[in-house]
From TrEMBL, chain B:
One of its GO terms (cellular component) is plasma membrane. The chain crosses the membrane at residues 21-43, 150-171, 183-208, 214-235, 256-279, 314-335. It comes from Fertoeibacter niger. Keywords: Cell membrane, Membrane, Transmembrane, Transmembrane helix, Transport. InterPro entries: MetI-like, MetI-like_sf. Belongs to the binding-protein-dependent transport system permease family. This is Carbohydrate ABC transporter permease. One of its GO terms (biological process) is transmembrane transport. It is a multi-pass membrane protein. The lineage of its organism: Bacteria, Pseudomonadati, Pseudomonadota, Alphaproteobacteria, Rhodobacterales. Residues 146-335 form the ABC transmembrane type-1 domain. It is found in: Cell membrane. It comes from the Bacteria. Pfam families: BPD_transp_1 (PF00528).
From TrEMBL, chain C:
The lineage of its organism: Bacteria, Pseudomonadati, Pseudomonadota, Alphaproteobacteria, Rhodobacterales. NCBIfam families: PRK11650.1. It comes from Fertoeibacter niger. Residues 4-234 form the ABC transporter domain. Pfam families: ABC_tran (PF00005), TOBE_2 (PF08402). PANTHER family: MALTODEXTRIN IMPORT ATP-BINDING PROTEIN MSMX, MALTOSE_MALTODEXTRIN IMPORT ATP-BINDING PROTEIN MALK. This is sn-glycerol-3-phosphate ABC transporter ATP-binding protein UgpC. GO terms for molecular function: ABC-type maltose transporter activity; ATP binding; ATP hydrolysis activity.
């Protein structure tokens, strides 16, 4: 008889690290919430049993999918389709039937420029300003964000005491609402704010941070980095922690210099995470709105007017609402995002494959 | 203190300071100041009176003037420390005329002294202007906004958890025609941000009469593909044998979902629930578009409106910002570990 | 009453035919064991009886009623899963009560049944624990307890012991047999461990590649395997098989030695396969041994000795000798064969008539 390995039964259990959540959740939810829910769940069981009998498991699958798919269809899929119709019609009317078909005219209008290097020569100069601002923002914000997030992750990955405290320090702003973030920094950066109070004793002249064009733009970059740094640092930290320790030990045995270890071991192995983080950061940077809007309101002038705010202004906020134009602009932005998303999917697909090979 | 620093500064192997250690601790302390500092500053500022907020340079702590009740005067009078040729003494101000203040010695209320205002400083003590917090609740619509925000957050999160888990259950535990098509659609829209479909979504919301309704804020957000995806991945790890055992146990499919699968998905539901709460609480752009009447404003929209008014009443705004921040800070303090593992595990944001 | 009858059960997953026509009657109160190599379709067959899968063709009847279209819940059966499938988030008590609550049974009755089952299985102190806090053997008992409280027409057990370590498996085996005797209920038990099958079963069903090879009592299977597959599958170590050619009533093994099997109802000529269990080979005392072989390896187990040897013609041979015979590697020894203990199979692998 082949000696079979004694194998202790492992009934399926939720992963250990999450058990705390369940306990904590139970305490928090308590009977107050669960009792009526449980009652409701029992009440709908009999009719559902009947439905199950009549339609079998196929019918049940439909039942479970229906609520979500209905909402999803009406509020996500349908708008996606309608967006194209919108972008090809004009007028202030909201309902498609009242709108006039103009084909690609709005796209033409958006893209109509005498000199593409100078937004003021364009038919929609605001669009081009927003586009130029967004492009500059994306380049500067993402590169700075990635560098600082990487440094933070590398530092958090060292053998620190109280690492979870330090991690929390950097993560804290991530959960704050963009409005809160915007207001906090508006308060600090205003003319009589904390920052000026701190630089005057150093012998520097006070700066109107949110009124001067370049400083306002820099502030938008700095504040968004402040708000998102922790999120990306966390993903990178997870990537760093997945790098096997023995690689570093082997390098140490070989007497490799720390700098070389970083360039030859850490960076290549972190690359998959780094790529994902870069694309995610790009996707978010292209859509920048909330924090910047609360911080500067797009100003001074149009110095911090970004694409999403342009869409918002043209479609909803301005006196001469032009939903068609806004839709066309959003489709152009969507196209950029789709490309970025495809890149991200390709990267994670490749990572997965590599992971499987190992 | 030395204990604390010994704890915080412990380095690899306890060897001497390497330059990387310097960089590390430099960065970490810079981080503490830059990350926590602004929020701390916000909180301290929120307790300052309007007059104090207007001061430049600002003080770190909130102060209030000391006052004293002097015989012969109805109202309490503010105290000042006066320094002039007659020496240093504490006097109460009766009234001020130009650059001269009429003051009395609280101990000797009969005699009025004239003091040049350049010769005196207010006598202050650390004190909190609680009024900044009380007033918005009483006089503004703050309470209303708070209620709206709580409603949106709670309802949206509950619906998200219910509908997403139901869909994830169907997509992970049933074989049916079109399953892959549904899954593909969900995946394809995973990254479509709201900002791309703002205009048509707005028209749909208007068409179904949800403009200026909190439901108009809630519904478009609840069918998140992210939630379905996360829950489905988790449910796939629940063995089918458990479901079959329940089927043998006379459980209906609904019971299997409600009594077996849902409790076992609790960890993933918790992660999604926490994120949903934070997302919905913080939502700004979409409520800004859907809600145009004050009665339905959420906190974030209301706050932005206050801050956009002509004479910005910073003392109220700062206090309201702090209140807006509180739920998120509580979530952060208690659930920080789950959130961070959740993000690291799923890349959710 | 718990009588199950299967007629012409077939099952295909897509293009793969997993079961190719199964006919079987399980009597009331009987303990029937399905054995067979991995992947032969044991679990599939059991799941079809349970109602968790639908057969592609054929009917399943319980107590004479056709239940093929009925769902799992409506067949009145209980199943113990290989992984036990205990609900991890419920206590032992809740695990056992869940199925009863679903049938809207009175609370008092539920409590009474759980108390009974807990006493029977000696798991009373564990009732408030979660499955994650139990040892393997305890989980096993709870899984059985969950089946017992249902008072099912029949128990279906899919390899309930395979997750236990060897020692525990032996004791649980005995307990399961005792339980069967006590409850007197019909049980269908799946295993790929033939010792388990031999010790527990009233009748054994040997399956191979979706077909039933033989159904009989354990001893009949051992003594009179219906074909080469069963002969090789039942009994440990496996039976020695020798290809042989019959000529004038004498069997000539491939390559040389002849064994006189006079008196056996062998065909006068043609190719046969002879099977001799290792336990039925005896050390030859005299000079005239039936088989002569060179010892390759000796495994002394104390009570018996397993001898691996090679016949002169190169065929391998295995013998299990009682006690501790004084043998060494390289020895040439003779074995005697008791003609009464020889199994003979035709060219098609089927046991020869008359054996
Ligand atoms: N859902 C399925 N889809 C496709 N093939 C399946 C499915 N379930 C089982 N099979 C196939 O059916 C055959 C029989 O499987 P079954 O689980 O019944 O084997 P078994 O006899 O129980 O084996 P074991 O002793 O390893 O448990 C196997 O070849 C298996 O791959
Ligand atoms: Mg099996």
């Amino acid at each position: 008889m082949p000696a079979s390995m004694p194998m202790w039964p492992r009934p399926w259990l939720p992963p250990a690290e999450t058990e705390g959540i369940v306990a904590q959740l139970k305490q928090m939810a308590g009977a107050v919430v669960t009792a009526p829910l449980g009652w409701a769940a029992r009440a709908i069981d009999p009719p559902l049993r009947l439905w199950q009998r009549l339609t079998g498991t196929g019918g049940m699958a439909a039942f479970f999918l229906l609520p979500n798919m209905a909402i999803f269809g009406v509020f996500v899929l349908l708008p996606l389709v309608i967006n194209f119709a919108y972008s090809m019609t004009t007028g202030g009317a909201l309902f498609l039937s009242d709108r006039e078909y103009v084909g690609a005219a709005q796209y033409a209008q958006l893209l109509d420029c005498d000199d593409y290097t100078d937004p003021s020569t364009c038919a929609q100069d605001q669009f081009w300003t927003a586009l130029a601002n967004t492009a500059l923002f994306v380049v500067l914000q993402v590169s700075l964000l990635i560098v600082t997030a990487t440094i933070t992750a590398l530092i958090l990955n060292r053998e620190l005491r109280a690492r979870s405290f330090w991690r929390a320090v950097f993560f804290f702003p991530v959960l704050l609402s963009p409005v809160v973030v915007g207001l906090i920094w508006r308060w600090i950066l205003q003319r009589d704010g904390l920052l000026n109070a701190m630089i005057i004793p150093m012998g520097l002249d006070p700066v109107n941070w949110l009124i001067e064009r370049n400083w306002a733009f820099a502030a938008a970059i700095g504040v968004t980095i402040w708000a998102h740094l922790g999120f990306y640092a966390l993903i990178l930290l997870a990537g760093l922690q997945a790098i096997p320790k023995d690689l570093y030990e082997a390098a140490e045995m070989d007497g490799t210099k720390p700098g070389r270890v970083f360039w030859r071991i850490t960076l290549p192995l972190l690359m998959p995470n780094l790529l994902v983080v870069i694309v995610l950061a790009l996707i978010r940077a292209v859509q920048v709105f909330d924090e910047a809007f609360v911080l500067t309101g797009g100003g001074p002038g149009t110095a911090t007017l970004f694409l999403t705010q342009y869409i918002y202004e043209v479609g909803f906020a301005s006196l001469l609402k032009n939903p068609g134009l806004a839709a066309a602009a959003s489709i152009l932005m969507g196209a950029v995002l789709v490309v970025l998303t495809l890149i991200q999917l390709a990267i994670s697909r490749r990572n997965e494959k590599k992971g499987k090979l190992k | 203190m030395s204990r604390v620093s010994a704890f915080l500064f412990r380095r690899r192997g306890g060897k001497g300071w390497h330059w990387t250690d310097v960089v590390t601790f430099g960065w970490l302390f810079f981080g503490v100041i830059v990350m926590f500092g602004p929020a701390l500053w916000l909180i301290m500022s929120s307790f300052k009176s309007p007059a104090q907020l207007a001061e430049f340079p600002p003080t770190a702590l909130p102060y209030e003037s000391r006052t004293v009740v002097v015989e012969g005067y109805d109202k309490p009078l503010p105290l000042f420390i006066v320094t002039d040729e007659a020496g240093t003494r504490t006097l109460a101000e009766v009234r001020r005329v130009g650059t001269t203040a009429q003051m009395v010695d609280p101990a000797n209320s009969g005699e009025i002294q004239r003091v040049n205002i350049a010769n005196r400083v207010p006598d202050r003590q650390v004190g909190f202007a609680w009024d900044n917090y009380v007033q918005p609740f009483l006089a503004f619509d703050f309470m209303l906004y708070l209620k709206n925000s709580v409603f949106v957050t709670v309802v949206a999160t509950l619906i998200t958890l219910l509908t997403n888990s139901m869909a994830a259950f169907a997509l992970s535990k049933y074989e049916f025609r079109g399953r892959n098509a549904v899954m593909l659609t969900v995946l394809a829209t995973l990254m479509i941000p709201l900002s791309v479909i703002l205009v048509p979504l707005y028209s749909i919301i208007s068409a179904v009469g949800l403009f200026n309704s909190l439901w108009g804020v809630i519904l478009p957000t609840v069918a998140t593909p992210t939630g379905i995806f996360l829950l489905r991945q988790y449910m796939l790890t629940i063995p089918d044998e458990l479901l079959e055992a329940a089927r043998m146990d006379h459980a209906s499919e609904w019971q299997i979902y409600w009594r077996i699968v849902l409790p076992l998905t609790a960890p993933a539901l918790a992660v999604l629930g926490i994120f949903s709460v934070v997302w919905r609480w913080n939502d700004f752009l979409w409520p800004l578009i859907v809600l145009s009447r004050k009665e339905v404003y959420t906190l974030q929209v209301g706050l932005n409106t206050y801050a956009g008014e002509l004479n910005v009443q910073w003392h109220f705004i700062l206090a309201m910002t702090v209140v807006t921040m509180i739920p998120v800070v509580i979530v952060f303090l208690f659930l920080q570990r789950f959130i961070t593992t959740g993000i690291a595990g799923s890349g959710l944001k | 009453m718990g009588q199950i009858s299967l007629k012409g059960i077939k099952k295909s997953f897509g293009a793969v035919d997993v079961l190719k026509g199964i006919d079987l009657e399980v009597g009331d109160g009987e303990l029937v064991v399905f054995v067979g190599p991995s992947g032969c379709g044991k679990s599939t067959l059991l799941r079809m009886i349970a109602g968790l899968d639908q057969p592609t063709a054929g009917t399943i009847a319980i107590n004479g009623t056709d239940v093929t279209p009925r769902s799992a819940a409506d067949r009145g059966l209980a199943m113990v899963f290989q992984s036990y499938a205990l609900y991890p988030h419920m206590s032992v008590r809740q695990n056992m009560a869940f199925g009863l609550q679903n049938t809207r049974m009175a609370r008092a009755e539920i409590d009474a049944r759980i108390a009974d089952a807990a006493r029977l299985l000696e798991i009373e102190p564990l009732l408030e624990r979660r499955p994650g806090q139990l040892s393997g053997g305890q989980r096993q008992r709870v899984a059985i307890g969950r089946a017992i409280v249902r008072r099912p027409t029949a128990f279906l057990l899919d390899e309930p012991l395979s997750n236990l370590d060897a020692e525990l498996r032996v004791s649980m085996r005995a307990e399961l047999s005792a339980l069967h005797a006590r409850l007197g209920a019909t049980m269908v038990h799946v295993t790929h461990d033939q010792v388990e099958a031999m010790t527990m079963a009233d009748r054994i069903v040997v399956l191979r590649a979706g077909r039933i090879e033989q159904v009989d009592t354990p001893l009949n299977l051992y003594n009179r395997p219906a074909n080469l597959f069963v002969a090789g599958f039942i009994g440990a170590p496996g039976m020695n098989m020798f290809g042989a050619t019959m000529a004038r009533g004498v069997a000539r093994l491939e390559g040389g030695p002849e064994i006189d099997l006079g008196g056996l109802p062998l065909p006068p000529s043609g190719a046969v396969t002879l099977g001799i269990r290792p336990q039925h080979l005896l050390l030859s005392e005299g000079v005239e041994a039936d088989l002569t072989a060179k010892v390759d390896l000796i495994e002394a187990l104390g009570s018996e000795t397993v001898v691996h040897a090679t016949l002169n013609e190169g065929a391998k041979l295995l013998a299990v000798l009682p006690g501790q015979p004084a043998l060494a590697r390289g020895d040439v020894v003779g074995f005697d064969v008791d003609p009464a203990m020889v199994h003979a199979f035709g060219a098609d692998g089927v046991r020869l008539a008359g054996f």
